[in-house]
Design goal:
There is one protein chain. Helices cover 85% and strands 0% of the residues. With 416 residues, it is an all-alpha fold. The protein has two domains: 215 residues, no CATH class; 175 residues, no CATH class. It is globular and about 60 Å long.
């Protein structure tokens, strides 16, 4: 069993590693093909889509997987997955409509509209059909899902390479490649599930739907707040600066998004053994503190390395047209170490099963970041957005440290 669990985890980590590597290459080609202005439009559309996509996570894996494990009967599992699919699809439709409403109110350029409408297809597909991934996780078999994800990712990468080699400079073609990735993944997951599950009778049960909705409400709200906190800077910055300046900032954040994803990968590999497996709270609490220190140090070293290598990284990925990204990246890379600390400190809320803490944290981060950005960005542009990025991450870490310190084991209980 341990070997199977370890193998399952390795497949999950391998998928994230490949996603980072291919994602960096795809973004580099996008930036070179579209230029600073076109890349700015694409990234702005992607930020809107990512926020809208969070509405599709009505009942995430943390709600579905435990229930699948507790009910191994295929008919019961299929009913549960069908309810989760309908709820996620309804959330996705709401997210897509909200995206269109936002675009209609803000009246962006035609390029942003085209990119968002194509990229938004993933809102309707990725999370609803992702219930099959939850089904695989419940059966400790993530290998097929990883292979399907990498296949879809490869299709997108091949299309982007083809468009780039053909000298295409229109946003629509590249956005369609991203949409095709979601379509291919949905088809592969559905085909795999239908081949292996034959008892697919389904009756809609309103009480079960309400129970799933209620159980996942805090996780859902937390995820929406988190995506809002992570992307609100770009929504505020875009109308306040030129397309070239926004493109430089978006390029900087794209590099850091890939860098900070390493924190999630590391924590996902460390936490099951060193935190979740600890039955004594004192041991788990101490492990979280040590992990936070180690991960933070690694993030600081990585951030300083990126800051020192910023000119080389920007020229290699984006070319000379993004020279303005260099100075932004130097400052933001140092602040990105805070993300590593935040990811590690969040383990306490997960271990104690306190999603309310996570929701409160992201509500504070979103409110603080939005207030700061609205006050500072109109005057200082991209530098104001960098300040908001650092402030938001600092608030997240401060909340995490406060919770970790206030809920430290009582000395008498530890002695006992």
């Amino acid at each position: 069993m341990r070997r199977r669990v370890a193998g399952n985890l390795l497949w999950m980590l391998a998928e994230r590693g490949f996603q980072i590597g291919i994602g960096i290459g795809v973004v580099a080609m996008l930036a070179r093909a579209l230029g600073p202005s076109g890349f700015a439009h694409f990234q702005y559309a992607q930020s809107i889509v990512l926020i809208a996509a969070s509405f599709a996570l009505v009942c995430g894996a943390e709600v579905v997987v435990p229930r699948l494990v507790a009910a191994p009967a295929p008919a019961i599992q299929h009913g549960l997955l069908a309810h989760a699919f309908v709820l996620r699809l309804a959330g996705g439709v709401c997210g897509y409509m909200l995206m269109c409403a936002y675009l209609g109110i803000t009246s962006p350029t035609r390029e942003v509209w085209h990119a968002a409408l194509w990229l938004g297809i993933a809102i309707l597909l990725r999370e609803p059909f992702g219930v099959v991934v939850a089904w695989m996780q419940a059966h400790t078999n993530n290998r097929p899902g990883t292979l399907f994800s990498l296949t879809a990712l490869a299709v997108k990468a091949i299309l982007v390479v083809g468009l780039f080699a053909a000298g295409v400079h229109e946003i629509t073609g590249y956005a369609a490649a991203f949409a095709l990735e979601a379509i291919v993944l949905a088809v592969l997951l559905t085909s795999y599930y239908f081949v292996r599950v034959h008892d697919r009778d389904f009756d809609w049960q309103a009480p079960q739907a309400r129970e799933l909705m209620t159980a996942g409400a805090l996780f859902w709200v937390s995820f929406i707040l988190m995506m809002g906190a992570r992307r609100v800077d770009q929504l505020v910055l875009q109308p306040a600066v030129t397309s070239a300046e926004f493109g430089a900032y978006a390029a900087c954040m794209q590099i850091l998004d890939n860098f900070t994803m390493v924190a999630s990968i590391l924590v996902a590999g460390i936490a099951p053994t060193y935190v979740y497996a600890r039955t004594a709270y004192a041991d788990a609490h101490a492990s979280i503190g040590r992990i936070a220190l180690g991960i933070s140090a690694l993030g600081a070293v990585g951030g300083l390395a990126i800051a020192g290598s910023a000119p080389w990284i920007v020229r290699l990925l984006y070319g000379s047209a993004f020279e303005a990204t260099v100075t932004l990246l130097r400052m933001a890379a140092v602040a990105s170490a805070l993300v590593f600390a935040d990811v590690a400190l969040t383990l306490l809320a997960v271990y104690l099963r306190r999603p309310r803490w996570v929701a409160i944290k992201w509500a504070l981060v979103l409110g603080t970041t939005l207030a700061f950005d609205l006050a500072v960005i109109p005057r200082y542009g991209s530098w104001g957005a960098i300040g908001g990025y650092a402030l938001g991450n600092g608030v997240a870490v401060l909340v995490g440290l406060t919770l970790w310190w206030r809920h430290r084991p009582v000395r008498e209980a530890v002695s006992a």
